[in-house]
Amino acid sequence: MTSVGAQLRARFVNENLGGHATVHIGIRAALAEHPEVVAEVIDVPAPGALGRVLRRPVPGLGSRDLDLAPLRAQLVLSSWVRRELRRRRSIPADVLHVYTQHAALLSIGELRRIPSVVSTDASGVQVARLHPDRAPTRHTARRVALTSRLERRVFDAATFVVAKSDWAARSLRDDYHVPDDRLRIVRLGIVIPPAVVRHPPSGLPEVTFVANSMSRKGGWRLLDLYRKHLRGRCVLNLVTPEYVAREPGVRVLGDIRPGDGRLEDVLARTRVLAFPSEMDTFGIAALEAMAAEVPVVGFAMHALPEIVVDGETGFLVAEGDDAAFASAIGRLVDDAGLACRMGQAGREQVNERFDARKSTKRLLELLIEARDLPPQDA
User: Fold this and answer.
1) Three-class secondary structure of residue 373 per DSSP
2) Mean pLDDT of 333-352
3) Separation of alpha carbons 81 and 102, rounded Å
4) Which pTM does this prediction carry?
């Protein structure tokens, strides 16, 4: 990996939620190949006791989407970030990178104080209706209008705004009016294993699901489909910290963590990754599977069609079509040759478009571009 060609002191804020942690594992690994960059990474911690209280839904209001629980959670997060950034003002930095905009809601002054880049995998408008435990109501539009105004302040203050996908970029243009001269698409990728050694199981083929939350990511739905259509044809691996009762054909792996290397071992023996989530805005688990030469079955929604090429690196079915979803998994379970070809095509796709070394280099080039622009008024 070549140098970005200029010394840079960069401060990175990692929102550290779900797949965001995996993204920053990739950024950190790639930064090791750039000695010209002095990087300071700020990982947002899990909320404390007070933060958890402030984030809780309000009985009677949450079901009507009137309690502003998502916004309150973001404000708890961003208040910690504001304190931390102010505390570090005496430490020199050429540029600030924040992932995502929600972490910067209360740091407008910091975004304007030094050149800044804000990256996101989705806008608030896009995610407002994706909470599986919070169905949209007639009040949701008002909440979205309020949170969008706060997000727009972040996007207006940043030197550049980065979308991880074309899907996210469309909302930034159409809903937030981020001008094209300040909007970039950088597909922040993952660490790709240098070589893939497959270890097919001696027994039934294995299907794997990866998520912190069974309910939010479609895990219970997948388990039901397995019982109805796939039991006896494959083993289902559930990589999740949530409790799932033992039952025939289902293996629960509850202590695997991002970056510990154990997921790679599971994927090495996996025939297909099941990705039943309808709320994921990008799909880090899909990238990790494809890097391990595992085809993906998911729904054709959000940014997933920019990752999985239907019929080439896996199958994408219509949103909500459970029968088609189970059928696509079954087709790959029953056809090892097809799964192998799709898996190899998937790894080529990830190498070409989602290698963290390449995407981090592009991000560093953008940070240097931001640094070299005339400063905004404080």
Assistant:
1) coil
2) 97
3) 10
4) 0.90
